[in-house]
Amino acid sequence: MSTHTNASANVLQLRVIVEAEDFEAAIAFYRDALGLHEQAAFEGDGDARVSILDAGRATLEISSPAQKRMIDHVETGTRQGPGIRLAFEVTDGRGVTTRLAAAGATIVGEPRETPWRSLNSRLDGPAGLQITVFEELEDAADRTQRAGFGTSAGR
Asked: Which segments does the entry list as coiled coil (predicted)?
């Protein structure tokens, strides 16, 4: 699902992903106290949880350690280092990955379809930043109808 209406734009969204040891406290602060609207939330095995919070033109994605380990495994096959990762929603995941690699990024995980129906790749970019490039393959409305997906604001 596109979050931007400009059809000529290659990058549709910047998503900042933060690993939160105390997931509940982070959600209470950013969603409940600060008032960032929850766009979506997902849960998986082993306490893997994520909440994607709308911050205007960007999102703040707060992930539990189990969720971060799972995403690292899905995108790269192995645990990646700690820190902040930038994620860019694009319209052509394979093409953008190729273009970024040609511009000097190192591909850590080739583009692959995820269990939540997006095409993700992982790269090491300039300034020591890890980057995920993702292309949505399924509309958010369809995704939230499947087991394990939906918002957790009503808890």
From this structure: none
